[in-house]
């Protein structure tokens, strides 16, 4: 089978693994691939910037039993694998014809985590050493990988990821009987954090993780509590969320037993979790700021608006005097708009948000939450 044919199969099987491709856009656009081939993805990378990335699995074989995953070991699907040399050559060939932002390498588990890691590492090493490729490489760390394999993968990458999947062992055990939450996921994540942390030898390497949303009974509160700890305690750079898509997993998991009419809800949950994540990373929100109804964020309104409605004592804010952190709590005002306000009020007394060139649709959202005297 040619590399191209193998890639066709592997990229089809990687289609539900969108860890580096998700954004905060409403709707399903961010789930779609590029038009030039199933393995090419439009992405935003953790360190900023966007472009087209080649994203593939090394193999769709897997010795694990994740009950939400169509590649789990008991599934009857055609199994193929790419050879590191062939993949590296293919990547460089495409790279010479069109500008790619980089390579995202993931994989099912072929026999053992470390054997699989070796295939990922070998591909990256051939690119770095044989082809002198200096561009972006993201390696997905295989659950259960040894410290040596993790370290080697990190040394060759700009970014690495290891999916946490669920907020806690209780949910994880519903979804996998072969993987250990602590030994295969949490301990490797801690090691990753250590070697890529401020004192570590690979502090420039970005690390991310992903939660699967709606495969178990987890609530948004469970996920956001874990998200908060991952940012604070392990220093992760980004956290992604992937709505569980019904029909892919074992019929016994909670996500398969959902009412079919709630399919849109799980995508909206994913969207609200991305908004909450953005509020933590860029708006100064903490876990305690989120307001839940029976453990979940509102599906109807964004978490920032829900917070503002619940804190009437905070508003209306005096736009002329309020600090940056205060202004960021106003519905409609994000970091760029707050910057405009702070620059504009240095040179004039604001009578309206239009004086700071805040677009009308955002000014309307802020109405009632700001004052000018
Ligand atoms: S490890 Fe689990 S999620 Fe990954 S490919 Fe195997 S069965 Fe799927």
Q: Can you describe this structure?
A:
With 373 residues, this protein is an alpha/beta fold. The protein folds into two domains: 3-205 and 223-238, TIM Barrel, CATH 3.20.20; 312-371, DNA polymerase, domain 1, CATH 1.10.150. It is built from twelve helices and nine strands. It has helices at 3-13, 84-97, 113-130, 147-155, 169-175, 181-196, 220-234, 263-282, 303-309, 324-327, 335-347, 360-366; strands at residues 40-44, 50-57, 102-106, 136-140, 159-161, 206-213, 238-243, 317-318, 370-371. It has a seven-stranded mixed beta sheet. Helix 7 links the parallel strand 6 and strand 7 (238-243). Helix 2 crosses helix 3 (113-130), helix 3 (113-130) packs parallel to helix 4 (147-155) and helix 4 (147-155) packs across helix 6 (181-196). The protein is globular, with a radius of gyration of 22 Å. It binds iron/sulfur cluster (SF4). The site of iron/sulfur cluster has 8 residues, from loops. Residues 62, 64, 66, 69, 71-72, 108-109 line the site of iron/sulfur cluster.
Helix/strand layout:
Layout (H helix, E strand, L loop, with lengths): L2 H11 L26 E5 L5 E8 L26 H14 L4 E5 L6 H18 L5 E5 L6 H9 L3 E3 L7 H7 L5 H16 L9 E8 L6 H15 L3 E6 L19 H20 L20 H7 L7 E2 L5 H4 L7 H13 L12 H7 L3 E2 L2
Parallel strand pairs: 2-3, 3-4, 4-5, 5-6, 6-7, 8-9
Antiparallel strand pairs: 1-2
Helix pairs in contact: 2-3, 3-4, 4-6, 7-8
The structure holds iron/sulfur cluster.
